[in-house]
Backbone:
């Protein structure tokens, strides 16, 4: 079977899998961003009651395997009475996992905003909350965007694991095709190419564009 | 207006300010000079509450800055008290520290809008007036990255003044500037001295400037005031050896 014939036959299945992968990616990204900002800020708190949960969270989700976390959320949580649909368990675990990495990016970026900026904001009497929101975070954003571009590519590739709890994403579809046809090279080859194209031609250009927008906001054109 | 009572500042075992008693009257322009490490910048930083003090009390406008009265006793101030007290003090820094993501005008409006709760329109009018005063009105929509050092420092002065402080602190505001633009910043400060009744404390290495505009000059050495007096007395007729050594060393350098 030629590659063209393969694509014609399994195109719809591949397209539907790719769509699911994209959905999982977008939802996981949303969770990762929220978790990263909350946990990154919490880890910088001077109050240890706020800081401690953030540290524990980051240690657990960054220090253990994403696949194990996925299985925990999908197979173990029901034992405690929390049963999640597989697609939700999928993007939730990928998002929570990448959020732990993201939290460290947020924390690091906030800490690398020059001290003079904190002092100048204090000198005009801004409250700590306003200082963070209006002065520090906008500058931290431009510092953390490039590593976030990396993290989002990691996150996209991480979503392939949700196939293991049979969410019908791209990886799940190609595994099905492979099982039915034994056309391993075509099936997994196409998956490789699609993941690459998504990362290279969607995520990377989007992040570059975002970096330019933020740079313009800082007056560096 | 400003009163230091037996103030200490230590970094671990290192004592930077040692039992400092220091008064600045309302409307007075006081310049602090001294060798590096003498604690002169620290005086401004603890007054701006950027650093906590290790002992003693500071009063601003009759109220304790570093402490607050609780049941008749002075206890160390909390963040809320600091914020309240800070608004009567403005500071300009050696490296300007303008907010890079805001235009010159936005830099000036930030405090009045966010802290004083002024309406945007009112804050804009106030800021434009101040930017005109420092000669930066035609650059009001530029980001700091498009401005020279001298221009940035003038915007920083306008930003501090927009909060209508009673006390202004200038921390080596010309040290990071190219020689040819120092004048544009010192002229703004001269204008402030001439036209406003601000209380000002300035740390500088520009002895000529200090001599021209100060009411009083304090020579700091080892975290204490070694000698103070009118600019004329201190520069023409220093009494202490360390003052003489410092002034002659500075004279050679410039």
Residues:
């Amino acid at each position: 079977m030629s590659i063209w014939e393969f694509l014609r036959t399994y195109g719809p299945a591949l397209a539907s899998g790719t769509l699911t992968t994209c959905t999982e990616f977008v939802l996981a990204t949303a969770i990762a961003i929220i978790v990263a900002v909350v946990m990154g800020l919490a880890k910088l708190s001077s109050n240890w009651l706020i800081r401690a949960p953030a540290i524990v969270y980051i240690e657990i989700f960054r220090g253990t395997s994403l696949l194990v976390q996925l299985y925990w959320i999908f197979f173990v949580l029901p034992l405690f009475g929390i049963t999640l649909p597989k697609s939700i368990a999928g993007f939730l675990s990928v998002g929570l996992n990448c959020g732990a990495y993201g939290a460290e990016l947020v924390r690091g970026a906030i800490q690398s905003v020059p001290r003079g900026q904190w002092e100048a904001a204090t000198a005009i009497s801004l409250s700590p909350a306003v200082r963070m929101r209006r002065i520090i975070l906008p500058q931290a954003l431009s510092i953390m965007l490039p590593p976030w571009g990396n993290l989002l590519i990691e996150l996209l590739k991480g979503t392939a694991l949700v196939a293991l709890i049979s969410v019908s994403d791209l990886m799940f579809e190609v595994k099905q095709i492979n099982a039915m046809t034994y056309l391993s090279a075509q099936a997994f080859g196409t998956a490789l190419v699609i993941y690459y194209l998504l990362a290279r031609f969607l995520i990377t250009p989007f992040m570059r564009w975002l970096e330019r927008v933020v740079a313009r906001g800082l007056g560096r054109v | 207006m400003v009163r230091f009572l037996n103030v200490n500042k230590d970094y671990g075992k290192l004592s930077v300010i040692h039992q400092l008693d220091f008064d600045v009257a309302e409307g007075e322009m006081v310049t602090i000079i001294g060798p590096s490490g003498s604690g002169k910048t620290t005086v401004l930083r603890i007054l701006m509450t950027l650093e906590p003090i290790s002992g003693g009390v500071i009063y601003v406008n009759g109220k304790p800055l570093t402490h607050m009265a609780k049941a008749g006793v002075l206890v160390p101030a909390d963040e809320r008290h600091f914020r309240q007290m800070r608004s009567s003090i403005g500071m300009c820094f050696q490296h300007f520290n303008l907010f890079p993501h805001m235009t010159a005008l936005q830099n000036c409006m930030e405090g009045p809008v966010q802290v004083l709760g002024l309406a945007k329109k009112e804050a804009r009018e106030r800021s434009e007036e101040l930017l005109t005063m420092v000669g930066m009105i035609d650059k009001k929509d530029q980001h700091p990255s498009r401005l020279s050092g001298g221009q940035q420092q003038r915007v920083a002065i306008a930003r501090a003044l927009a909060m209508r402080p009673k006390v202004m602190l200038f921390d080596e505001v010309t040290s990071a500037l190219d020689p040819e633009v120092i004048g544009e910043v010192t002229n703004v400060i001269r204008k402030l001295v001439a036209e406003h009744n601000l209380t000002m404390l300035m740390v500088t290495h520009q002895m000529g400037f200090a001599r021209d505009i100060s009411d009083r000059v304090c020579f700091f050495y080892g975290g204490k005031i070694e000698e103070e007096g009118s600019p004329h007395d201190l520069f023409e007729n220093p009494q202490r050896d360390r003052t003489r050594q410092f002034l002659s060393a500075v004279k050679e350098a410039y």
Summary: Chain A has a mean pLDDT of 93. The interface with chain B takes residues 114, 116-117, 119-128, 130, 134-135, 138-139, 217-220 of chain A (CB under 8 Å). The longest helix of chain A spans residues 3-43. Residues 3-217 of chain A form a domain with the MetI-like fold fold (CATH 1.10.3720.10).
